[in-house]
Amino acid sequence: MSDREPPYDPYIPAAGNGGAGGSSRQNGDQRTAEIQNQIDDTVRQMKNNMQDLSERGERLDSLQDKTDNLAVSAQGFRRGANRVRKQMWWKDMKMRVCLVIAVIILIIVIVVPAVVATKH
Predict the structure, then answer these.
(1) What is the pTM (predicted TM-score) of this model?
(2) Backbone dihedral region for residue 18 (phi beyond 0: left; psi -120 to 50: alpha; all else: beta)
């Protein structure tokens, strides 16, 4: 049983690579370190992306709240504008009615004495 080879593991470099095990191991360690650095950079970038996404979500929520408030304010403004428009319409109608009454009274004041004077 001692002639059994250990099971193949792709992550452990083979000892029989050209007879220079030390050099091969050093290259493997360097390659592993480079890959680990790339993984660390990727993980760091993903964490930054997640944080940015979270901040964006918060900004979107804030923007949604502001939009809702603006819609409510616009509806209130529309109601107020309609109320003012109706008030101004009534005020204009009252002014027109007063002018018509004043003109009628003026015509009566001028015409009645002229008619009475022509009858005598």
Answers:
(1) 0.45
(2) left
Count the residues in the chain.
120
How big is the chain by its Cα radius of gyration, in Å? 47
The 10 Å CB-count burial string (b at 16+, else e) for 62-84 is: eeeeeeeeeeeeeeeeeeeeeee
56-103: per-residue pLDDT in tens? 988 999 999 999 999 999 999 999 999 999 999 999 999 999 999 999
CA distances 38 to 12, 24, 25, 48, 50, Å, are: 20, 21, 20, 15, 18
The first and second tokens of residue 65, run together, are: 């709240």
Q: Which two tokens stand for residue 107?
A: 């015509």
Structure token digits, residue 2: 């001692």
Count of helices and strands (H, E) across the chain: 1, 0
